């Protein structure tokens, strides 16, 4: 592992790259591509940014089969995109979206001979999960950097006032991160080292559980550590940052705990065997969502919807190296979380970034990472930013 010394006086900022259509929710880049960035739009299409310009024709448009959100916080529609590690040869990429029947679908698609156009009719569904409530439902997709397996996150699918939690029930997929092998058999096979393989009463696809709404998660490319941001509907947003082995079979506690706190704060809760978060921050429920969105709420409003990011491993911003960069959708804060020798430090860099940027995101919906491990910020309203420094 390489550790870089911070540059004295390094001035971090955000550079506006380009505009895409509103309701942008994610940005990523295919393997071995250095000039194209792909932006997921909740309405059901994917746009390409090529050399800083947004192409007019979308890479893929499945808006006719996607149920999009009517509210910014619902997060339905097209949610996730992951390119196969061998994409340059097989042309496979994977999407997660809500169809018109309100079912979460994970499907494989193919690119055409034109690398900037996908084949809409090549869809092969590999997983379908019904959504029976109005709660958010995650749908993030990542290929593991070390094992090449597909990781899929799903939300808890129950309102926080429900009596029981699906997240702790290992007979379903809700409130879990799944891990499947899409390289052998169709639609997938189960990796031999998944934690519940061979247990008839538990879903073998489950990698970890006890989550509420793990809308974004990522791997540290250097250490293979898994970082899961879990969105709260109640009181505490949380960041779970653990090594891969400790993440495997981990129970993150919902709905016994939220953050480091018992959900029912009037009674004692048994936290033995639970994986507690590395970091948490409050989200006061008494401030309305619109107030939070406009950043005009109570001074106690620290945020209401954590936006998971990445551990920075690029070579342009030494002061960020090895730290986890993440934010909040409602308060538009951006933090840098570092851990070393069992000590954590957290810095709010929003004001620093705004000072050194001509514009700043209105509503942070996602962070992105390119193949050089440089970081981007996706504004839900359609502006794409890149981290820069002097």
In terms of topology, how is this protein built?
Blueprint: E1 12-19, E2 24-28, E3 36-41, E4 45-50, E5 53-54, E6 60-61, E7 78-83, H1 87-90, E8 92-98, E9 103-111, E10 118-130, E11 138-143, E12 150-154, E13 176-180, E14 206-208, E15 216-219, E16 226-230, E17 236-242, H2 244-247, E18 257-258, E19 261-262, E20 279-282, H3 289-293, E21 306-311, E22 324-328, E23 334-340, E24 343-348, H4 350-355, E25 364-369, E26 375-379, E27 383-389
Antiparallel strand pairs: 1-27, 2-3, 3-4, 4-5, 4-6, 7-8, 8-9, 9-10, 11-12, 12-13, 13-14, 15-16, 16-17, 17-20, 18-19, 21-22, 22-23, 23-24, 25-26, 26-27
Overview of the structural elements:
- The protein has 390 residues and is mostly beta strands.
- 5% of the residues lie in helices and 38% in strands.
- It has four helices and 27 strands.
- It has helices spanning 87-90, 244-247, 289-293, 350-355, and strands at 12-19, 24-28, 36-41, 45-50, 53-54, 60-61, 78-83, 92-98, 103-111, 118-130, 138-143, 150-154, 176-180, 206-208, 216-219, 226-230, 236-242, 257-258, 261-262, 279-282, 306-311, 324-328, 334-340, 343-348, 364-369, 375-379, 383-389.
- Strands 2, 3, 4, 5 and 6 form a five-stranded antiparallel β-sheet that branches. It has a four-stranded antiparallel β-sheet with strand order 1-27-26-25.
- The longest helix is centred in the C-terminal third of the chain and has 6 residues, at 350-355.
- The chain starts with 11 loop residues before the first strand and ends with a strand.
- 45% of the residues are buried.
- The model is unreliable at 1-7 and 286-301 (pLDDT under 50).
């Amino acid at each position: 592992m390489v550790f870089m010394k911070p540059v004295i006086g390094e001035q971090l900022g955000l550079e506006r790259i380009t505009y895409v259509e509103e309701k942008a929710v994610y940005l990523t880049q295919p393997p071995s591509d250095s000039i194209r960035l792909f932006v997921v739009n909740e309405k059901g299409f994917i746009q390409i940014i090529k050399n800083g310009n947004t192409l007019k024709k979308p890479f893929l448009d499945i808006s006719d089969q996607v149920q999009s959100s009517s509210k910014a916080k619902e997060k339905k529609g097209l949610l996730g995109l992951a390119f196969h590690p061998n994409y340059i040869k097989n042309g496979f990429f994977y999407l997660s979206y809500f169809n018109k029947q309100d079912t979460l679908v994970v499907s494989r698609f193919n690119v055409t001979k034109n690398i900037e156009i996908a084949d809409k009719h090549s869809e092969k569904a590999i997983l379908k999960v019904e959504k029976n409530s109005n709660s958010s439902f995650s749908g993030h997709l990542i290929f593991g950097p070390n094992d090449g397996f597909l990781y899929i996150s799903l939300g808890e699918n129950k309102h926080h006032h429900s009596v029981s939690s699906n997240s702790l029930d290992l007979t379903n997929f809700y409130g879990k991160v799944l891990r499947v092998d899409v390289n052998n058999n169709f639609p997938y096979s189960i990796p031999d080292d998944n934690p519940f393989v061979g247990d008839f009463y538990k879903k073998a696809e489950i990698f970890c559980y006890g989550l509420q709404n793990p809308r974004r998660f990522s791997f540290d490319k250097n250490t293979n550590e898994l970082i899961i941001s879990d969105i709260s509907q109640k009181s505490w947003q949380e960041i779970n940052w653990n090594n891969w082995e400790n993440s495997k079979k981990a129970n993150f506690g919902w709905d016994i705990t939220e953050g480091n706190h018992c959900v029912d704060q009037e009674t004692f809760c048994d936290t033995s065997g639970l994986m507690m978060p590395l970091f948490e921050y409050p989200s006061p429920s008494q401030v309305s969502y619109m107030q939070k969105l406009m950043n005009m709420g109570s001074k106690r409003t620290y945020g209401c919807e954590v936006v998971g990011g990445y551990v920075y491993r690029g070579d342009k911003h030494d002061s960020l190296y090895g730290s986890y960069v993440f934010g909040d959708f409602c308060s538009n804060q951006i933090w840098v979380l570092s851990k070393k020798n069992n000590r954590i430090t957290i810095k709010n860099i929003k004001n620093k970034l705004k000072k050194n940027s001509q514009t700043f995101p209105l509503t942070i919906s996602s962070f992105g990472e390119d193949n050089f491990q440089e970081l981007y910020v996706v504004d839900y309203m359609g502006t794409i930013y890149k981290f820069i420094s002097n």
